[in-house]
Amino acid sequence: MNMDNRPSAEMLAEQAGRLFTLPDIVFKLQEMIYSDTSTVQDIAELISHDPALTARLLRLANSSFYSFPAKIDTVSAAVTLVGTSEIYNLALATVVVGTMQTERLAQLNLKGFWQQSVLSGLVARNLAEQAGFRQTEAVFVAGLLHRIGYLVVAEQWGEVLSQLDQCDASTLPWEHEENVLGFTLAECGYHLLREWQLPETLSQSVRWQHKPERAEDTYRPACWALHVASYSVADHLLGESGRIVREIKPGAWESLQLDDVAVKLAMENGQNNLAQIVNILS
């Protein structure tokens, strides 16, 4: 491979942004939740115009993701109980999985990809809850999207995948990505989320998942939660026996005020909910 001719993360993401387009309802919903005049009923009515989205959101609201004591059978009730910003993040989660589908990507192990992504989101969300975050759904979505750069590379630069997937035990995955691609998958994912004009909380969390200390103060706690979750899940699924977990930066524990017991609890919770949430989102 000629190093000088390698495409940039930004270039690949720009091309992918034209191919993978989010449905209009995502942008309309984003506009409404930041509007001073939109009501819960307005947001519920917009969502109700999309039967598939409505069904998925209600299934999420009635799943172990929330464990509400009573059944939620209307979108307006879901919006009221979950919150407007949170319902936007959940709506985004339900549409992204369906958006990232092409003939080329269908040749990959997408089931395994989304299982790792969803588990990372669930673990990050649980860590955020334990750390006292006010909005935890955004952290879940950041976890869901933290490796979306892989799908961008797979679609736009597929010939490099075989080399990208051959990471030996002497090199950490993100270091291997830089060696092969010239950038990390996190950088590529960040640029795609910017192409999609998604909230900065999501794009910055994905961008700084390996270096949370470099994130702006506003986004740093979410970056730390994703950092711990994604490393813990990768280590667990890849059978690395602590190799990746040992790379978790000490600042994570100070920032989140958590320890490895909290991670173990979050992992157990995530694994218990994984199958149900994957089934809803896919």
SSE blueprint:
Elements: H1 9-19, H2 24-33, H3 40-48, H4 51-61, H5 75-82, H6 84-99, H7 110-130, H8 137-145, H9 148-156, H10 161-164, H11 173-181, H12 185-195, H13 200-207, H14 220-238, H15 251-256, H16 260-281
Helix pairs in contact: 1-9, 1-12, 2-3, 2-6, 3-5, 4-6, 5-6, 6-8, 7-8, 7-14, 7-16, 8-13, 8-14, 9-12, 12-13, 13-14
Q: TL;DR?
A:
The chain has helices spanning 9-19, 24-33, 40-48, 51-61, 75-82, 84-99, 110-130, 137-145, 148-156, 161-164, 173-181, 185-195, 200-207, 220-238, 251-256, 260-281.
Walk me through the structure:
With 282 residues, the protein is mainly α. It has two domains: 20-99, no CATH class; 100-282, Orthogonal Bundle (Hypothetical protein af1432), CATH 1.10.3210.10. 65% of the residues lie in helices and 0% in strands. It contains 16 helices and no strands. It has helices spanning 9-19, 24-33, 40-48, 51-61, 75-82, 84-99, 110-130, 137-145, 148-156, 161-164, 173-181, 185-195, 200-207, 220-238, 251-256, 260-281. Helix 3 packs across helix 5 (75-82) and helix 8 (137-145) crosses helix 14 (220-238). The longest helix is centred in the C-terminal third of the chain and has 22 residues, at 260-281. The protein is globular. It starts with 8 loop residues before the first helix and ends with a helix. The mean pLDDT is 93.
